[in-house]
Amino acid sequence: MRTSRTNLFRITIFLFAALLITTNVSAQRNQGTKYPSLESQLTQKYHGHFVEQDTELAKLIAANQDFEMLRADEFSDKRGLPPWIRVWWRKQHPEGEYNAEDPTKGYPLVLKEIVEWMITHQDLKPGPGKGEEEGEKERSAVVDALSANDYSPKNNIGNKDGQGVIPL
Length: 168
Prior knowledge:
- By secondary structure, the chain is mainly alpha-helical.
- The chain folds into two domains: 1-31; 35-155, no CATH class.
- The chain is 40% helix and 2% strand.
- It has six helices and two strands; from the N terminus they run H-H-E-E-H-H-H-H.
- The protein has helices at residues 2-27, 38-43, 56-63, 83-92, 111-120, 141-147; strands at residues 45-46, 49-50.
- The N and C termini lie far apart (57 Å).
């Protein structure tokens, strides 16, 4: 009887210690990493354009500030992706493997074009975007496909269901 109580006590202590260690590790994951403020992200220039206030893009940026999802090295790597787009992508694709050793860090290369499309379509709706009315032609094929409303699965653009939506 005494042995089972001792074992139960040991197991309880072990589980409690394991819980403390895992909680402490996740809390320290990005300790010391200075996250960019929401204001700095909303006033930063992306692809030559600023984020306009009260747009769907501004709301999307504000809704994707869960930077503890990211590794510390993702704030200074050479991919050139804003942290909010990485958080947005990870929320949409939690099954992904975001590995520091992978040159892409686990993100698709198309994310740069998605940011470009978002900044020129801050309402996040298809159609002519900012600058397109003036004849701007320095866009990628992906931005052209997004602007043309062609979200079919054959283009591999859109969400996991192949639908052309940009969820918050």
